[in-house]
Amino acid sequence: MIQASKKAVDEGRTLTLLEEVLASPEGESVLTCMQCGVCSGSCPYGEVMKYPPRQIIQEAIAGADADLISSPSVWMCVGCYTCAKRCPRGIDLTDVVWPALRDQALQRGIQPPTELRVAFQNLYLYGNLLGISPRKRLDWAKDLDVTVRDLSRQPEPVEVLWLVGCYPSYYPRNQIVTRAMARLLTAMGVRWGVLGKDEKSLGDCDRLFGEEGLFELLVENNHKLFRQHQFDRLLLTDPHGFRALQKFYPRYGIEVPAQHYTMYLAEKIDQLKPLLVRAIEATVTYHDNCCVGRRCDCYEPPRELLRIIPGLKLVEMPRNREIALCCGGGGGGMWLDGHITEHGGKRLSDERVLEAAGTGANILAVSCPFELSRFEDSIKVTGLEGKLVVRDIIELLAESMGLEERKKA
After folding, report:
1. pTM of the model
2. How far apart are the C-alpha atoms of 351 and 333, rounded to whole Å?
3. pLDDT at 108 over 90
4. pLDDT tens digit string along 136-148?
5. How is 144-213 classified by DSSP, letter by letter?
6. For residue 215, what are the CA distances in angstroms to 193, 209, 218, 277?
7. All domains of the chain, ordered by start, with CATH?
């Protein structure tokens, strides 16, 4: 079947949905689907989709995909990976079927929801999803009380090349976390640097949404950047970027040592623990983000970091680790709330903060830049203001180290 896909390309005709799926490295697994429905039953939006995951495979194999490709269901997956994780046949719907489906829609002139389309345009024009000038990438570091090595201005060898990410670089709430991370790394004696204006998105969201061409442009750009600098490892604040480097960049021959910050800091607990001198008297529950959690089976490092903070009590939500509910922001979901609610879905972040509050916790700890704004907005919507606050693990560690953000007079 993969040979058939290659033949279609050689003939200069557009691939069918099934041919495009089969052309991917794991695509042939789709042919083993036994239509059990586990994927559709597991999908947080399966019940409101006209074409849930099981039926998408059915229509693709049957070649009856015209109505499917024009359906709103195409733009309702938020990349939570639950369907792929639970599939008894090991079919990777999240990373194979959904991107192919969206690529088919784009090829046929079917445009994604407006907010998502604008995000793609921003990424192409500015190298970030927010559409802000690259010259402002380091605005978060203005008047910072530690040294920030801007390798775009003065390249030098570093132990850690920190890929800060789009939201952590530009979004005011996330910038607080970014500054805390800079202080934390410095206090630990790490020699670190950033790419400054040269940094661009790693492209995981646009790949999941069928923009393979744009993804490849970003891969090429980032590969050139990595080769220009000397570092021992890449450190990422964004789990989506980490996932892209871990799974998809190697397909282009790009393999670099990379870690999400929870993995990196958990390896250095013995060094970190003596620096935690202040108690944080709070009850905390942790939200497992989908990329580091379900996709990478990294559940304990974030919890290990929380447990070493003096005074902090960690409690679990009923849905945690592998069965944790997605925040709804991944895979382009940050720009899909309007589309999803218009077609019968509920915001997963609203449901999740209610679940967090139900544990008796007064802090919801996160380790993904998207989750700060999503959950803080949901706390307002659900009437939980004053009862629950959202804090990145970095913020909690920095506070315990006496490195928290100082309010300007």
Report:
1. 0.91
2. 15
3. no
4. 999 999 999 999 9
5. -SS--EETTTS---EEEEEE--HHHHH-HHHHHHHHHHHHHHHHTT--EEE-GGG-----HHHHHTT-HH
6. 25, 10, 5, 43
7. 2-107 (1.10.1060), 114-267 (no CATH), 272-400 (3.40.50.10700)
